[in-house]
Amino acid sequence: MATSNSILYAGAVPKFIDIGKDGNIDLDLCEDEIKKDKSRCLRLIKAIYAVAFSGNILNQKKLQYLRETYDILILEDCCHAIGATEKAIKAGSCANSDVSIFSFHPIKNITTGEGGAITTNSEEIYRKILALRSHGVYRDKTMKPWEYEMRDLGFNYRISDIQCALGLSQLKKLDRFVERRREIAHHYDELFKNSILTPLYSDNTGSSYHIYVVKLDFTKLKINKAQFFSKLREKGVGVQLHYIPINKQPYYRSIGYGSENTPVMDKYYEECFSLPIFPTLSDKEQRYVVNSIFELVSDA
Ligand SMILES: Cc1ncc(COP(=O)(O)O)c(C=O)c1O
Predict the structure, then answer these.
(1) Is cis: bond before 243, omega within 30 of 0?
(2) DSSP secondary structure letter of residue 156
(3) Please, what is the end-to-end C-alpha distance for the chain in angstroms?
(4) Would you write out the chain's pLDDT as a tens digit for each of its 300 residues?
(5) What does each C-alpha distance from 211 to 164, 239, 267 come to in angstroms?
(6) Which of 67, 103, 135, 280 could form a disulfide with 154 if both were Cys (CB 3.0 to 4.6 A apart)?
(7) What is the CATH class of 2-171?
(8) Atom 2 (ligand 1): residue with closest C-alpha?
């Protein structure tokens, strides 16, 4: 929600694009939209805002191509992807984007309690964000010692020093946390091999595995997805669904969304769910999660 809400806050209009098989926005479909937009006399599409869903970094080659070919801004939502890599590129390094954003909410790979960060390689964007964070106020060396100028309508979006201290200590642990998440994910991959459950993607060595998603065709079972969730939760397994499609939320419906053509996302919503993954999940607990699922699907 936060990603598309921020587009609305900025006074812009989000256009939702279907996802690909790995859960990330389909960048080929984005290109089709940009091409259509280019053929109009007034270009409406200004930017692509793409989430690196579940920790799976966006296709960097395609982002680079889109940015160079269409002169379009690229924003990467790396809230799930902190610690992720694609070849030599680290999530959030803005190798092929203008900005990347991070959340440090307690459920994220690292936390500052609440808050987040934005990274950019652009001096101009950096200066603008610094000002907007603090009431739109600018200071520079050409001004008199007491002077400052409010040039934009900014906000109080300052993170506290105490939170930053926590963030810095968390950052030191990031590689260890992500390594353990990858281990757990690869263990799930192994356990689901040759079963009716299919990981959203497997053998992904670059993902930071904020979320581990599996697909299951519930039409083949005697129980439906809601019963499956309830039964697993009764067994103490914290199964989740990331996420309900944003365009189907009442607020978005009330402003005209909800009927976009998104067959891959619709299927994702029918079949997918997320399993517990966090660094302190023990092997025993993980086996319990998987055995509980196997018991359910073999009974049903
Ligand atoms: C992909 C993604 N983007 C943005 C956010 C928003 O983060 P916050 O709640 O810290 O603003 C989240 C948080 O859950 C998220 O998962």
Answers:
(1) yes
(2) B
(3) 34
(4) 999 999 999 999 999 999 999 999 999 999 999 999 999 888 999 999 999 999 999 999 999 999 999 999 999 999 999 999 998 999 999 999 999 999 999 999 999 999 999 999 999 999 999 999 999 999 999 999 999 999 999 999 999 999 999 999 999 999 999 999 999 999 999 999 999 999 999 989 999 999 999 999 999 999 999 999 999 999 999 999 999 999 999 999 999 999 999 999 999 999 999 999 999 999 999 999 999 999 999 866
(5) 24, 11, 18
(6) 135
(7) alpha beta
(8) 79
Tell me which of 78, 103, 246 to substitute to probe ligand 1's pocket, judged by most ligand atoms within 8 Å of the beta carbon. 103
pTM of model > 0.90: yes
Report the length, in residues, of the chain: 300
Token duo for residue 296: 């359910």
Token output for 216 = 């299951």
